[in-house]
Amino acid sequence: MSETTKNEYQKDGAFTRPPSTFRNFVSADPNAQFPAEKGRYALYLSPGCPWAHRTIIVRALKRLEDVIDLYILNPSMGDKGWFFDGAGGTLPKDPLYGFTYLRELYYKADPNFEGRFTVPVLWDKKAHTMVNNESSEIIRMLYSEFDAFVPEPYREVNKPGGGLYPAHLRAEIDEMNEWVYNTVNNGVYKCGFAGKQESFDEHVYPLFASLDRLEGILAAHGKPFLFGDHITEADVRLYTTIARFDVAYHTVFQCNLKSIRHDYPHLHLWFRRLYWDETEQTGGAFHKTTAPWIGLYATGYAGARAKVTKSQAAVIVPRGPAVLVEPLAESEKL
Ligand SMILES: N[C@@H](CCC(=O)N[C@@H](CS)C(=O)NCC(=O)O)C(=O)O
């Protein structure tokens, strides 16, 4: 029987994700502890991570690229966790303090830190501390707290559908987030990081039941996005998992009851519309945060799976599918 600490990912063969630890908020209120300011905050992340991916999608959707810095670490995790080394267009070292490892940043914020050194991190360059390391909260800060610094059309109050987390849809979005997080976003990890067959079986069927349910939602309303005609938080949160599905979870995490491209026509169309979009609607937010890295997702997950399951075998990376993301026909475009 294994002993579990808050830092461990597995207990008796089942994967558990520990809670995030830095939970402060940036606010539009200039008197807040962390007031929204142009150039004050930075996102540290590794682009293969689906939780981190949420934050760069929203940063791009909100046109916050010149308001919030982005510091990209190597796409794969090393023995000492996430690191800078300049590979493939990432930064050679931490631009603020010259660090090599993300853990050094955590220790700068809290020398007694005892949790896991996860990405994404929202960092305050002025106070030299970590604001928040929970992606679901970071994205919500980006929706409206920085709106004073973005052009009028991209402010939440001016968006036709009410923005990424519209007041009239909040309860429904929260409800969907709950089951999508447990069975899909984190569900794939419960399969891929399972240490025994029973644990894998316990999670693989609910994962596909939820994908069936999502397919049914899109089929029933016939609209392009999960909540209709406008992109919401629910689309962003599902997208980062679906983008990794056929290229990594289906093979490396053995989630192979079905694939998105062959078995889920509505989800597949929904995904490709987001991925290929270069219009005003997204400003290419999904494409530019996915395309440079999608070919590396399988590599990152194969290494992570070997580490979490403590496999001694050689890490073999599957190379398919031959076409990473299928094209969008003219007639399928919005
Ligand atoms: N709840 C966190 C989860 C973040 C997370 O687990 N990130 C992974 C990468 S996908 C990580 O950095 N893991 C490093 C580790 O656990 O050592 C969030 O959504 O921000």
**Using DSSP, what is the number of strands?**
6
As a percent range, the share of helical residues equals 25-40%
Approximate strand percentage: 5-15%
The termini sit apart by: 53 Å
CATH architecture identity of the largest domain: Up-down Bundle
Q: Structural class of the secondary elements?
A: alpha+beta
Give the helix/strand layout:
Elements: E1 10-11, E2 14-15, E3 41-45, H1 50-61, E4 69-72, H2 102-109, E5 121-124, E6 129-132, H3 135-144, H4 170-185, H5 187-192, H6 197-221, H7 233-249, H8 260-263, H9 265-276, H10 285-290, H11 297-308
Parallel strand pairs: 3-4
Antiparallel strand pairs: 1-2, 3-5, 5-6
The structure holds glutathione.
Residues 20, 49, 51, 81, 116-120, 133-136 line the site of glutathione (GSH).
Organism: Hypoxylon rubiginosum
Protein name: Glutathione S-transferase
Describe what this molecule looks like in 3D.
The protein has 334 residues and is of the alpha+beta class. The chain has two domains: 10-158, Glutaredoxin; 170-332, Glutathione S-transferase Yfyf (Class Pi), Chain A, domain 2, CATH 1.20.1050. Helices cover 38% and strands 6% of the residues. The chain is built from eleven helices and six strands. It has helices at 50-61, 102-109, 135-144, 170-185, 187-192, 197-221, 233-249, 260-263, 265-276, 285-290, 297-308, and strands at residues 10-11, 14-15, 41-45, 69-72, 121-124, 129-132. The strands form two sheets. It has a four-stranded mixed beta sheet, with helices on both faces. The protein has a two-stranded antiparallel ribbon with strand order 1-2. Helix 6 crosses helix 9. The protein is globular and about 50 Å long. Glutathione binds at residues 20, 49, 51, 81, 116-120, 133-136.
